[in-house]
Amino acid sequence: MKVRTIGIPVLDQEKALKFYTEKLGFLKHKDIPVGENHRWLTVVSKEDPKGPEVLLEPSPNNIVPAKEYQKALFRAGIPYTQFNVDDIKGEYERLMEEGVNFSMKPTDVGSALIAILDDTCGNHIQLVQMKN
């Protein structure tokens, strides 16, 4: 068993695609219409284009518990998921120059350095640099 795709609910797929590719540096991988103006829209890491895909999944507005869960996580500042980086301070500086908003700048939490950003699509995303 292995992870192939991880879904992140996004409020606007096109806005999410621009943010994840233009700001975070992912590559668009799949873009397949699936009805009701929704798409099977995935991005992959430039460093690992054959690795796991991130599905930019339309936020489930018609499923109230899921919609409220996403909003509650965001209000509480809890990241929906995390991405590993090799140089968190460098990524933080690069993304700040790109206009990305952070709710937590790089912080030492013992075994890792973490930072939390707003993906502009309803989620906080945690960046993690593991210590050796």
UniProtKB/TrEMBL annotation:
Residues in domain VOC? 2-130
Extract the PROSITE patterns matched here. Answer: VOC
Q: Which Pfam families match?
A: Glyoxalase (PF00903)
Q: Which domain of life is it from?
A: Bacteria
InterPro entries referenced in this protein's UniProt entry, alphabetically: Glyas_Bleomycin-R_OHBP_Dase (IPR029068), Glyas_Fos-R_dOase_dom (IPR004360), VOC_core (IPR037523)
Q: What is the name of the protein in this document?
A: VOC family protein
Q: What is the lineage of its organism?
A: Bacteria, Pseudomonadati, Bacteroidota, Flavobacteriia, Flavobacteriales
